[in-house]
Each structure stands twice: as structure tokens, then as C-alpha cells.
Design goal:
α1 packs antiparallel against α2, α1 packs antiparallel against α5 and α2 packs antiparallel against α3. The chain is flat and about 80 Å long. A hairpin with a 7-residue loop joins β7 and β8. It is an alpha/beta fold. The protein has 22 helices and 8 strands. An 8-stranded mixed sheet has the order 3-2-4-1-5-6-7-8, sandwiched between helices. The longest helix is centred in the last third of the chain and has 23 residues. 54% of the residues lie in helices and 8% in strands. The chain has 3 domains: 83 residues, Four Helix Bundle (Hemerythrin (Met), subunit A) (Up-down Bundle), CATH 1.20.120.140; 196 residues, P-loop containing nucleotide triphosphate hydrolases (Rossmann fold, 3-Layer(aba) Sandwich), CATH 3.40.50; 162 residues, Signal recognition particle, SRP54 subunit, M-domain (434 Repressor (Amino-terminal Domain)). Bound molecules: guanosine-5'-triphosphate and magnesium ion (MG). The site of guanosine-5'-triphosphate has 21 residues, from α6.
Length: 470
């Protein structure tokens, strides 16, 4: 798995920090020395590492930690934020023109970096978004390169434009654009030839395309496994032809992480997507924030706490708490509020990915936040009395509710069972406790409710168990 060793090392550093009650400047410096070593071993660019640890140290030694608030946690928070910044903070999208114009995307990169595969992956993604892509075969050198694109295009149900290997790439692209205009294709993805090393012929070929047609996106694919070389390659391409962004491939392998962390800082160009496997749907949008969580070990419970803190508005929490203590207790309206808060915290998938040990289990599992939609519909088809007092919901009422929500009665039963679990959990986790309602307690009350949230029951580690120490 990618980043394994870096993640392990960083977690060790944090473990040591957390075991200390207060942090001295020396503690921070020592920790940063280890962070530095871990990053260098992960093949992160030296200058990037130096600036990064300097920034983290300054923030950690300064004001923030002096507040005395969980110093170890504070350092983790700072490291995560700075990693996020290092990778650009924001997600960068492709430039896509309105549907009645043709958007061009040129793929470039060294041999074997993943241009052809990624071109087909992108074509599939854009097709799924309702675009009409056309793949263009401009690798006229490697035997079978055209065939490879055709095979991949066919798998994606995307047409491939080729003129064989006897025409110049720039001419192929011009003809492809005419073809696209005639056939209603509004995205043209150009697959170009790679070379073993940066070489002038390759660059000239790309420059000739650049200078003769309008390129909306010049995308460099680089192999994440090549670490700092990937960063050097990105620099060369950017200097010579100008790139708009990078796609980092093979992040599913045991890459050490250097490229992911350095590319943006060194080249100033964003990572747009990451390749996560050989299959044609293994391409993910790049989110700096999620990547930072991943590098820090996806089970970073600290970021979960942080998110919960931000999202849960204290008044709402206090209201729920009052509700639990009142005679009527926790009803469906409160359940709805709790679900909304879940959404504010970034939805189920992002919550789960932060649970210790959940990251790897989640791989390949598509957690869909729309699982929330149906329970919501069911609750909304209840009368106010039923929502406030779930116990009055008789079988005939259930049938009426099911009909109103357009679901089976079985689904209503299932939802009510989950609601019951949540209600019990909230009780047992202390929301019914003394009336003081400290901050900590309120948070503690909300979170365990997750275990009983729709669609969450089946996940190990959730539901207020040991792994969830609130
Ligand atoms: N595991 C993994 N393999 C990938 C990924 N992307 C591409 N590959 C594999 O890497 C190899 C090279 O990919 P290509 O798409 O042919 O690379 P290319 O840049 O077009 O190579 P040339 O045309 O020779 O320059 C293929 O075996 C791909 O299946 C990825 O994200 N993960
Ligand atoms: Mg290729």
C-alpha cells in the first residue's frame, strides 16, 4: 500500500508527542527532526522538507501550542494543515468548455507513465458526465500503441481517431478536430508518444501540437513510484511546453509518497487526478485534504474530532440533550437533525475514512451518502405526532408512511430499528446524564449516534465500540 512506511513513521512521532503532557520547544524540535527524516526517506524533495518542517515548527512552538491545549494533538493538526497547503489545498478541475465547443486535452509524459491508460480512464469519466469524448492516437512510434488505445477506447465505449503511423502528430490532431466537429464530439483527448528520458524530439513534437491547435488542458502523467524523478520530469515538461496539471499514476503501488507531496510545491502545478490501478475506472479526483489524511494514516481520529467540533453547533447539541432529558425523549425530528449534522461533517464516506483501520477496509467499497435520502423521506412522511412520539406508530400507520415515502413497509421497519438503536446508544453514552452538559459531553452524545445511523450499522469499529473513544 502506498505511503505505508511514511505513515508508520509519522504515527510513531505523534505517539511520542501525545504521551507528553506539555511540550517544550525541545520536544517539538526533536519531533520535527524525525518528521524530516521520515519525509526524506519517503523521497520528498529536500527543499520542500526543509520549508515544511520549518513552518510546522514555527507554528507549533509559537502561540498555538502555548495555549496549552493538548499540545500533541495540536502538532498533528498543524502537520495536517501544512500538508494540505503543500498539496495546494483546493481541488483543481480540468478546464471544460461549454458543451457546444470542443475541449482539448493533451496527455504527455515519459514512456510507461500511464498516458494511454489514463487517457481512456478520463474519456470514461467524461462520458459518464454526459460529454462526447474522442480519443486521438498520436503515438506513431511504438508498435501496438494505436491498437492499445483502440482496445481501451472500446472498453469505455469511446471512439478512437487514428490515421495510422504515417502522419505527423500535429496533422493527426488537426484532422481529429475536424472529425470531432463533424461527429458531435465535444472533448478531444490526445494520446501522445512517450520516451524513455526527456528528449528534444519528443518535446518538439508536443510543442508543434501546442503551437498549432488550441489546447485547453496540457496534462502530464507521471509515475508516482519514481518519486523525485517524477518531480524533475514535471519541471522539465513545464519549462518546455507548459503544463496545466499533473496526473499521478500508480498510487496503488508501494510508492513512498515523495511525488504526491512535492509536485505542487516544486512545479507550482496542481495534481488533478490520481491513478489507483490498472482498471479503467481506477482514476480518482485529487483532494489535498484527503491525501493528507491518508498520508497521516487514515485512521486519524484527531481529524474526526476536529470535524465534529466544527460541524456540531453547540446549540443544536444542547437542544438534543434537553430533548433526551425531557419526558418525550428523542424523536424522529431529532434523528433528522442528527442526520443533517452527519452530512455537515462531510458525509459517511469521509467520516469512515478517518476511523482507525477503516481506510484499507473501505478500499473498493462505494459508500453512498444517498443512503440517507430514504430514511429522510420516510421520516418526512410521518405526522408531527408520530415524529415526536414514535411509540404510537402502529402497523397501519407504518403502511401509510411507507406509501407516502414510496418504499416497502420492511424499509420503514428497518429505519425504525436503526432509530431505536440510535436512541439506545445515545442514552447509554451519557446524553441522559447530569444536566451540566459540558462541551465534551455534548460531543460525546452526538457521535455515538453514528453507530445507529442508516447504513452504518454494518461497519466494524463503529457504533460506540472500543475504537471510538468518545
Ligand atoms: N497499478 C497501476 N498501473 C497503472 C496505472 N496507470 C497505468 N498503469 C499501467 O502502467 C503501464 C503503462 O501504462 P500506459 O498507459 O501504457 O503508459 P504510457 O504512458 O501510455 O506508455 P507509452 O505509450 O509506452 O509511453 C500499463 O501496464 C498500465 O496498465 C495505475 O494507476 N496503477
Ligand atoms: Mg501510450
Amino acid at each position: 500500500m502506498a505511503f505505508e512506511s511514511l505513515t508508520d513513521k509519522l504515527q510513531n512521532v505523534f505517539k511520542n508527542l501525545r504521551s507528553k503532557g506539555t511540550l517544550t520547544e525541545a520536544d517539538v524540535k526533536e519531533a520535527m527532526k524525525e518528521v524530516k527524516r521520515a519525509l526524506l526517506e519517503a523521497d520528498v524533495n529536500y527543499k520542500v522538507v526543509r520549508d515544511f518542517t520549518k513552518k510546522v515548527s514555527e507554528r507549533a512552538i509559537g502561540q498555538e501550542v502555548m495555549t496549552g491545549l493538548n499540545p500533541g494533538h495540536m502538532v498533528i493538526k498543524i502537520v495536517k494543515e501544512e500538508m494540505d497547503i503543500l498539496m495546494g489545498s483546493e481541488t483543481t478541475e480540468l478546464t471544460i468548455l461549454p458543451s457546444n465547443e470542443i475541449t482539448t486535452i493533451m496527455m504527455c509524459g515519459l514512456q510507461g507513465a500511464g498516458k494511454t491508460t489514463t487517457a481512456a480512464k478520463l474519456a470514461g469519466k467524461l462520458k459518464n458526465k454526459g460529454k462526447k469524448p474522442l480519443l486521438v492516437a498520436c503515438d506513431i512510434y511504438r508498435p501496438a500503441a494505436i491498437k492499445q488505445l483502440q482496445v481501451n477506447g472500446e472498453k469505455q465505449g469511446v471512439p478512437v481517431f487514428t490515421m495510422g503511423d504515417q502522419h505527423k502528430p500535429v496533422d493527426i490532431v488537426k484532422a481529429a478536430l475536424e472529425h470531432a466537429a463533424k461527429n458531435g464530439n465535444n472533448i478531444v483527448i490526445i494520446d501522445t508518444a512517450g520516451r524513455l528520458h526527456i528528449d528534444q524530439d519528443m518535446m518538439d513534437e508536443l510543442i508543434e501540437i501546442r503551437d498549432n491547435v488550441t489546447l485547453n488542458n496540457t496534462i502530464l502523467t507521471v509515475d508516482a513510484m519514481t518519486g523525485q524523478d517524477a518531480v524533475n520530469v514535471a519541471n522539465s515538461f513545464n519549462d518546455q511546453i507548459g503544463i496545466d496539471g499533473v496526473i499521478l499514476t500508480k498510487l496503488d503501488g508501494d510508492t513512498r509518497g515523495g511525488a504526491a507531496l512535492s509536485i505542487r510545491a516544486v512545479t507550482g502545478k496542481p495534481i488533478l487526478f490520481i491513478g489507483m490501478g490498472e482498471k479503467l475506472d481506477d482514476l480518482e479526483q485529487f483532494y489535498p485534504d484527503r491525501m493528507a489524511s491518508r498520508i497521516l494514516g487514515m485512521g486519524d481520529i484527531e481529524s474526526l474530532i476536529e470535524k465534529a467540533q466544527n460541524a456540531i453547533d453547540e446549540d443544536t447539541a444542547a437542544q438534543l440533550e434537553e430533548k433526551m432529558k425531557s419526558k418525550q425523549g428523542f424523536g424522529f425530528d431529532d434523528y433528522l437533525i442528527a442526520m443533517e449534522q452527519m452530512n455537515q461533517m462531510g458525509g459517511i464516506a469521509s467520516m469512515l475514512s478517518m476511523m482507525p483501520g477503516m481506510g484499507s477496509q473501505l478500499k473498493g467499497v462505494d459508500v453512498d451518502d444517498s443512503v440517507m435520502d430514504r430514511p429522510k423521506a420516510i421520516i418526512l412522511s410521518m405526522t408531527p405526532q408520530e415524529r415526536a412520539n414514535p411509540d404510537i406508530i402502529s402497523p397501519s400507520r407504518k403502511r401509510r408512511i411507507a406509501k407516502g415515502a414510496g418504499v416497502d413497509v420492511a424499509e420503514v421497519n428497518r429505519m425504525m430499528k436503526q432509530f431505536e438503536q440510535t436512541r439506545k446508544m445515545m442514552k447509554s453514552m451519557g446524553l441522559m446524564g447530569n444536566g451540566k452538559g459540558s462541551k465534551k459531553k455534548r460531543r460525546g452524545g452526538m457521535m455515538p449516534g453514528l453507530g445507529g445511523m442508516p447504513g452504518m450499522g454494518g461497519f466494524p469499529g463503529l457504533g460506540g465500540g472500543k475504537k471510538f473513544p468518545f
